[in-house]
Design brief:
Helix 1 crosses helix 2. The chain has helices at residues 3-19, 35-53, 66-72, 125-129, 154-159, 207-220; strands at residues 56-62, 78-83, 87-89, 92-94, 102-112, 132-143, 164-169, 173-174, 185-190, 193-199, 230-235, 240-241, 247-252, 256-262. The longest helix is centred in the first third of the chain and has 19 residues, at 35-53. The chain is globular, with a radius of gyration of 17 Å. Strands 1, 2, 3, 5, 6, 7, 8, 11 and 12 form a nine-stranded mixed beta sheet that branches. Strands 4-14-13-9-10 form a five-stranded mixed beta sheet, with no helix packed on it. Strand 9 and strand 10 (193-199) form a beta hairpin. It has 263 residues and is α+β, with helices and mostly antiparallel strands. It has one domain: Fumarylacetoacetase-like, C-terminal domain (Fumarylacetoacetate hydrolase, domain 2, Alpha-Beta Complex). The N and C termini lie far apart (41 Å). Keywords: Lyase. One of its GO terms (molecular function) is 2-oxopent-4-enoate hydratase activity. Residues 97-261 form the Fumarylacetoacetase-like C-terminal domain. This is Putative hydratase/decarboxylase. InterPro entries: Fumarylacetoacetase-like_C, Fumarylacetoacetase_C_sf, Hydratase-Decarb/MhpD_sf.
Length: 263
Amino acid sequence: MGADDIFAAAQLIVQARKQRAPLGALPPQLQPKDEAAGYEIQREVRWLLAEQAGDFAGYKIGCTSKVMQDYLGIPHPCSGGVFTSGIHESGVTLRTADFVRVGVECEIAVRLKHDLQPLDAPFTMERVVEAIGDCHAAIEIVDDRYVQWETLGAPTLVADDFFAAGCVLGPALPRADVADLAAVRGRAIVNGALVGEGTGADVLGHPVHALAWLANHLAAGGDGLEAGQLVLTGSLVKTIWLGAGDRVRMELDGLGVVEAAFV
C-alpha cells in the first residue's frame, strides 16, 4: 500500500472509533492485503489517536492461546496498542456506552524495566525475562467495534489494534516475587459466577514466550519495546462479552485479584 492509502485507511478507522460507529469493510483499495500492511495502518492510527487516547503506553498480544486462536480463527499471535487513557486501576467503574460492544479477558500483564531494541534481536525467552520489572493480574478490555468481525480478516483487525480498548490492572508485583508465570492459574468471574479459567502455560506455552514473540515481531519492522511500557501477554480464557450491570473479577493465583464494574 502507498502512504496515501495507508493514511486514508487509518482516517476511516479513527473516525469510526471516535464516533463509536461499527466499522464495516474498508473500501477495496484501502483494505490491507496482508498483516504487514495492517500493522502499517495501525502505526498511522496510533498517531491519529494520540490527542484523544493519550500517550502510547504499550501493547496487547492477541491469539496467544488455543482457545482464542480457535475462537477468532487466527492461528498465530497478533498485537495492538495500549494507550494511557485506557489503563485503569482495580475497582474502576466503566460505562458500557463508551464502547460498541465491550468484552473482557483474563490476562497476565508485565511492565518492562529495560528496553528491548531491534539492534539486540533476535530475542529468546531467557533474554526477555530479564527485561520484566513488575507483573500484574489484569483484565484486558476489548471492544467489538465492527459490523461483523468474522468477515473482516486479520489484516483489518490488526489495523484497528486487534480489538484493544484498554485494561484494568491489579497491584504490581516484582517479577522476582512470582515463582513461575506459566503456573499461574486464572479464573474469570462475572456476577459471582465462574465463566472461564486457564493457566499461564496456555499462552504460547509460557507468557514470556509471548513477550519474546512481540519483541521479535517489532524488531522485524525496526521497532522496539521501551522501559516502562506495559505488555498484556494474552488471554487465558475465551473473550467474555458484557452488558450494563456486570461485575468482573479475575483471580490469578500468585498475582492477586483485579476487579471492575460496567454500568
